[in-house]
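Mods, move this if it's the wrong board.
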Amino acid sequence: MTRRIPKAVGLVVCVVTSLIATQSPAQANPFPNNGDSTFADNGLHTYCYTSGFTTDASIGSYAMSVLGNTTDMDDNFPIDPPSCWYDETDIWWWESNLDASQRGLRECYLESPNGICTSSDVYLDYGQIDSGVGDVWSDRRKTAVHEVGHSIGLGHDSISAMKTGEIPDSSLTWRTFSAHDIAHINGQY
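Not the wrong board. Structure tokens:
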């Protein structure tokens, strides 16, 4: 004798499975979702420091290492010569006194007609970042990772470095990308 699932139970299982399958993509963040809806030009993200980026350059290398170590993208600091005056440089790091409560800013400096940003400027406002009540070391790095995320197409969320504003605690969660965003990055680059 075989067991049969009542039709009502089978129908409920089918409906629940359909809802789960159809709701997941709708709840996902779109990509790209940065302010200008651009992607980076390729999977190698080169960077350099402008002459005024002097307060804590380790923040830039930290953010680039997060990108290179947690995704399929590579980061590269050009050695010969270490200059920003290359068309191939993807991120130029700047220090700036930004507006109001703005801690960091990424702007596409050079965009192609097909939605590719070949060069981004990343501005950090150390005064604004350091004025928070939390862990300054973690908050500086979160802000830098956040702006690098915008340079490759990520938008804001509430579960990772892409969270807007000050971090709630010094957990590594706030200094890296979410699994969802990493999947977008790896799929694109």
